[in-house]
Amino acid sequence: MKQYFRRYGIWILVAFAVLFPFVFYSGEISARRDLSVIERLAFAASRPVQFVVGGTASGVSSVVNRYADLRGAKLRSIELVDENARLKLQLQALAEVASENTRLRSLLSLVQRRDLKFRSCEVTAFDPSFMFRNIRISCGTSDGILPGMGVVSAEGVVGIVMRTTSFSSDVLLVTDPNSNLDVIVARNRRRGILSGDAHGTLMFKHFDRGSRVQTGDEIVASGLTGPFPAGLVVGRVSEIVGDSEAVLQNIEVEPTVDISRLSEVLVLLQPSREVDTIRRIGGDEWLRKVVEGTGRAGG
Amino acid sequence: MRLTVRHVHYFVMIFLVLAFAFFQSYVLGVASWSVFHIDFLTIFIVYMAVEHPLGDAFVRSLVAALVVTTLSLAPSGFFVMYYVQILVIAAFVSKRFVLWGRLSQFGLFAGLLALKYILFAVLVVTQGGSLMMLKYFLSVLPSAAFTCFVALPMFRIFSALDSFFEARRGRDETGYSLI
Asked: What tens digit of pLDDT does each residue of A155-183 get?
């Protein structure tokens, strides 16, 4: 036996090292998002290097961005003045519609929509493996950010806050394979789930039976579950594989937000109704467990 | 305790691991063009597996995996497994076979890098995610190709760094101290 191990031990070790990860990941794995004690220690110990590299990167990028901003600034400012004048007119018209909407909702005894409160944060880092899709933003618990809050940009939905520290938060992007979002097709109000995939796009699945989806359809947040208010744009249908009568359809959705060009995001400060209820009944600890537990289910 | 070149060398290597992890996250990850998504950490770990004692390389790989885990929302243990996997394979292959040719070195590194993408694909598929092989392959190709392209020059740079410390260590052991 001893001789056998002396002879083949190295081969067994190599085979184990190669095969074990595949066997391990073929089973159900923990969706734990919080750092373990050892990981927290590593995080704390590496802070000085993080500070130096992060600080240098942010300094250099701010110099480069300032130079890039100055180029063509005159032309851009003229365009923005025009756009501003146009938007002011639109805003006046929309203010009238909004007040009419509020009046009608109160007449119909519908619940009044809350104003969105948000905090602007800078995107400081991306996933270092370039495979998982998450970003780190410059706001943390000291800014009122909590796990479960939604993150958006001017173009639409970005992701959900999964992990927070005092001064930074990690956001799971909608394009990550672990992300699932409750959405509707804006054109016909059909509901479904939008998941991230391995190549940076989104897949529309579990949609209502008999739904018709067309290329170019706008997909928006349903507002029924998750932290995003109804109507917030998530993406547009870019490709449908299999006709509308087919049992199985692969519906690919292109996100409206260009994740690779994100530099600033907005964190929606009011949590969703479910998150509010969970926190009120079970407290922060329970909420944390729920967020970790639904990590695999995304929103 | 006297600070020797050996200690300095050890800590410089740990520092490089940390610096590469943060450089990938804060600088390369921010780049919108995926060609810049060069995996220096994998290059460095493969180099350490081939050129350094396995124990030292293991400790540094563990540090790399822990730091990357703090920066990523990957499932717990993913990077520990991947780094240990490539460490064992690289050490085994380099000790069993003599890889003099550049093509064989390139082939070894490309194979080890491919393991990362295979492991990720296995993870996505087994957790019920969607994966279209051709699209996935095309999406990771620029990053993987460029990482392979810079791997051999990077090996030479790391080797030069090691040689510098080895030379200083020779002087250190004959009575000269670095600090």
From this structure: 889 999 988 888 889 999 998 888 888 88
CA distances to A82, A115, A155, A181, B169 from A88, rounded to whole Å, are 10, 20, 19, 33, 71
- Cβ A14–B92 below 8 Å, yes or no? yes
Which regions in chain A score pLDDT beneath 50?
Answer: 295-299
Residue located via tokens 């928006």? A220
**Per-window interface: B 127-166 vs A, CB < 8 A:** 127, 129-132, 135-136, 138-140, 143
Q: For residues A116 and A269, give the distance between their C-alpha atoms in angstroms, rounded to a whole number.
A: 8
Q: Is B174 on the interface with A (CB under 8 A)?
A: no
* Residue A287 pLDDT: 61
| Cβ atoms of A113 and A101 closer than 8 Å | no
B interface test, pick of A16, A122, A129 with most B CB neighbours within 10 Å: A129
Contact B139 A31 (CB under 8 A): no
Q: Looking at beta carbons, which residues of chain A come within 8 Å of B33?
A: 260
Q: How many CB atoms lie within 10 A of CB A44?
A: 10
B121 neighbourhood in chain A, CB within 8 Å:
198
Cα gap A125→A134, rounded to integer Å? 9
Judge whether A204 and A215 are in contact, CB under 8 Å.
no
A260 touches chain B (CB under 8 A): yes
> How crowded is residue A185: how many other Cβ atoms within 10 Å of its Cβ?
22
Q: How far is CA B25 from the centre of its chain?
A: 15
Average pLDDT, integer, range B3-8? 82
CA dist., res. A203 & res. A70, Å (int)? 39
Partner B, chain A 35-64, Cβ-Cβ below 8 Å: 35-36, 38-40, 42-43, 46, 49-50, 53-54, 57-58, 61
Distance CA(B146)–CA(B137), nearest Å, equals 14
Q: What are phi and psi of A261, to 5 degrees?
A: -110, 15
Q: Looking at residue A250, what is its pLDDT?
A: 78
Spell out the domains of chain A, with CATH numbers in brackets.
117-299 (2.40.10.340)
Determine how many CB atoms are found less than 10 A away from the CB of residue B80: 17
Domain ranges for chain B, please list them: 5-173
Tokens 């901003």 found at: A69
Yes or no, beta carbons of A176 and B73 under 8 Å apart: yes
Tokens of A32: 């734990």
Average pLDDT for residues B113-124, to the nearest whole number? 87
Each residue's pLDDT tens digit, A99-137: 888 778 777 765 555 567 888 898 888 888 888 889 999
Q: Are A267 and A150 in contact (CB under 8 A)?
A: yes
Question: Which tops the pLDDT comparison, B38 or A35?
Answer: B38
